[in-house]
Design brief:
Shape: globular
Low-confidence stretches: none
Number of helices: 9
Number of strands: 15
Strand content: 25-35%
Bound molecules: NADP nicotinamide-adenine-dinucleotide phosphate
Mean pLDDT: 98
Number of domains: 2
Largest sheet: 7 strands, mixed
Structural class: alpha/beta
CATH topology of the largest domain: Quinone Oxidoreductase, Chain A, domain 1
Length: 324
């Protein structure tokens, strides 16, 4: 048996309740992983509430974790009991102390990367990797806008974009978050509780706008994000922290001849080779100090509901892990 967070229905954080679950032996191709840290992600809120239809309750949410290999099923090569591993998997269920995971999703951890660090950064860091290198080709001299720049994805994205020579404009809701975003490389930070960001973007880019806007906020920012683009700019709408963007009339793109995309991490790690490539780049960036992992909050796994309340209330910064 293992302790898990089980929800009987879709709903708010209050549906997340600790319970014992049977884990069983790993099937063919699977590895049994004892979790030492579980990553908290905004996507967990969408799966919990039912906005993303990935879970049919009763069941367990959670897309990423790190831990130690306990046992391997038949046909598994390359992983052995005692190996330290981390994973992102598009099947929810990581909010549990032990889990059987297909070996295809596991990444071995180098000694210098801690378990908590790994659990905190796999999903968010690989997202920053593909946003900057695969969905866009952000490079030296590009002005880019990063929303929620002090958040989990936001801090990594900001630091990496800055390293690539971009001029990074970040949005945050408080002065404390602004300080954090600046410390990670943001050149200009807009505190959205008292300032509108399209005007600031135009001011700091000499009226041109940003080449790329990375928007994980969704409904509340969509229109202003478009208004912050440079001619031929690209709005990457990659999340919905404020709610899903309503259906869009493509005509809204024409004033700037703009591009609009709605990507997903899992499309960028759809094969083992792609996963190795994206994860390898992330681990390399971490090793070289280009990005860092800032675990600003930890919660016991049993208190996952409290972590969700804080995440949705915009109280968290950087990355967060749940500890089984
Ligand atoms: N498509 C993909 O492949 C992919 C992969 C990973 C993550 N994502 C998306 O990336 C975004 C960030 O994820 P994360 O886990 O790193 O979360 P996070 O950024 O740590 O937390 C969300 C942040 O969004 C901002 N926000 C603005 N309006 C909000 C609202 N109405 N409610 C809650 N937060 C609001 C808050 O920052 P301020 O208070 O500073 O505004 C908040 O801290 C999410 O939308 C997530 O779904 C997408």
């Amino acid at each position: 048996m293992a302790v898990a967070i089980v929800q009987a229905t879709h709903g708010g954080p209050e549906v997340l309740k600790p319970a014992d679950v049977e884990v069983g032996a790993p099937a063919e191709g699977e590895v049994r992983v004892r979790h030492t840290a579980v990553g908290l992600n905004f996507i967990d809120c969408y799966v919990r509430s039912g906005l993303y239809p990935l879970l049919d309750p009763p069941g367990t949410i959670g897309m990423e974790a790190a831990g130690v290999v306990e046992a391997t099923g038949t046909g598994v090569t390359g992983f052995h009991a005692g190996d330290r591993v981390a994973y992102v998997w598009n099947e929810p269920g990581a909010y549990v102390a032990e889990r059987n995971v297909p070996a295809r999703w596991l990444v071995k951890l180098p000694a210098e990367v801690g378990d908590r660090e790994a659990a905190a950064m796999m999903l968010k860091g690989m997202t920053a990797e593909y946003l900057l290198h695969r969905m866009t080709r952000a490079g030296a001299g590009d002005a880019v806008l990063v929303h929620a720049a002090a958040g989990g994805v936001g801090l990594i994205l900001t630091a990496w974009a800055k390293h690539k020579g971009c001029t990074v404009v970040g949005t945050v809701s408080t002065d404390a978050k602004a300080e954090l975003a600046r410390a990670h490389g943001a050149d200009h930070v807009v505190v959205t509780s008292r300032e509108r960001f399209p005007e600031r973007v135009m001011e700091v880019t000499g009226g041109e706008g940003c080449v790329y806007v990375y928007d994980g906020i969704g409904k509340d920012t969509f229109e202003d994000s478009l208004a912050s683009l440079k001619k031929h700019g690209h709005l990457v709408s990659y999340g919905n922290a404020s709610g899903a963007v309503p259906p869009v009339n493509l005509q809204v793109l024409s004033p700037r001849c703009a591009m609009l995309s709605r990507p997903s991490l899992f499309q960028h790690i759809a094969t083992r080779a792609e996963l190795d490539d994206v994860a390898g780049n992330l681990l390399d960036a971490l090793r070289r100090g280009i990005v860092s992992v800032d675990i600003d909050q930890t919660y016991p796994l049993a208190e996952a509901a409290r972590a969700h309340v804080d995440l949705e209330a915009r109280k968290t910064t950087g990355q967060t892990v749940l500890l089984p």
